[in-house]
Amino acid sequence: MTEILLLICAYLIGSIATAVWVSKGVFGIDIREHGSGNAGATNTFRVLGPKAGTFVMLIDMVKGILAVRLALLVPFYQDPENIVKLVNLQIGLGLAAVIGHIFPIFAGFRGGKGIATVFGMVLAIQPVVALCCVGVFLMILFLTRYVSLSSIVASIALPILVLFIFNERELYYRIFAIAVALMVVLTHQKNIARLINGNESKVPLFKNKRVFRRRKDDDE
Questions:
Q1: CA-wise closest residue to 112 among 181, 57, 51
Q2: What is each CA distance from 118 to 103, 133, 218, in whole angstroms?
Q3: Confidence (pLDDT) at 172
Q4: CA distance 159 to 176
Q5: How far apart are CA 75 and CA 8, in angstroms?
Q6: How large is the average pLDDT for residues 106-123?
């Protein structure tokens, strides 16, 4: 029963619609009506610029971290002998948060693709692996300015790191890493097509691209 309540809480944490709330509250638009139509960090970068995109990405990562940390509220899982069960619960909580991000109850079940939230949960479970993936993401982003390509490459790096570099023994974590890479590739098919055709939008890293600004007279 406790685990079910924790999974519900994790889903609700994931349902915090960061991109939607930022776009509506600060810019006066619904991010889902612009760009790719996704309520995630990538589309926020594209439509509202790097400052808003970075903020959304960080908060979405925190959602994954908080969801995983819920497992520590149960004393049973703090016993070193239950480490495998702890990891399994953490993966379940993280996935519940990702589902909440993709289908947020607070935003009409129309969310993003869950990439930042996935990396947040990995950061909470395996910090070194997650930081390596973030490093890959930032390097590709700096070199190409493509957030979508950065997400795809970083996600593919996850199972490579888990299976071959760090040689993670936990079976469910290995399966999870492979599933994440496959999920990201599948959910980015349109982005991949645009990348091949040269039509994918780049993000400005050193300029605050505020396409939509709320003027003072709009509030008066």
A1: 57
A2: 14, 11, 37
A3: 87
A4: 8
A5: 19
A6: 93
